[in-house]
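Hi all, long-time lurker, first post. I run a small reading group and we've been trying to get comfortable going from sequence to structure in the token notation. Rather than ask abstract questions, I figured I'd post a concrete chain and ask someone more experienced to write out its structure so we can walk through it together at our next meeting. Sequence below, copied exactly:
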Amino acid sequence: MTPTTGYTRLQIALHWTIATLVVAAWLASEDMDDVLEARLDADLAPLAGAPLHVWLGISVLLLAVIRLVVRLRSGAPEPTGSPPVQLAAHWGHRLLYLLMFAVPLSGMLTWGAGIEDMGDLHELAANGFLLVALGHALAAILHSAMAGDSTMSRMFTPRDR
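-- Answer (accepted) --
Happy to help. Here is the structure in token form:
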């Protein structure tokens, strides 16, 4: 991956769109156990009458694939700060990308393949994803406030302006 000075418009748009969809999916997850049970009992096709939560998860996964391809092609800025801060940022981003794929995929196995036991893992991973994303946002805000650098502005101001 090529280091750059910032993110492209597309990378920023994908970042905020996926973040919004993840929060929306989490908020739309209420009663999914009952909805899954009803789908399986009625022996319905996975996408027949799929609830909003399912469509949001599919959207997150599709956009995550695009986001990864764009990141590999366009690069990303190097983390700033001390070596421990850079290491935390590096592994934090890796964890976010892992969860960006693992959560929707585990949901697909639960909903699409009807593997009910996967639902508990999906729910746990989704809650963990939200916590990691919240920590990521908090770390970026604190880093920018304490270091006074452009860490936060990189996700609002595209390099290709």
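A couple of things your group might point at:
Helices lie at 9-27, 32-41, 52-74, 83-111, 117-147.
The longest helix spans residues 117-147.
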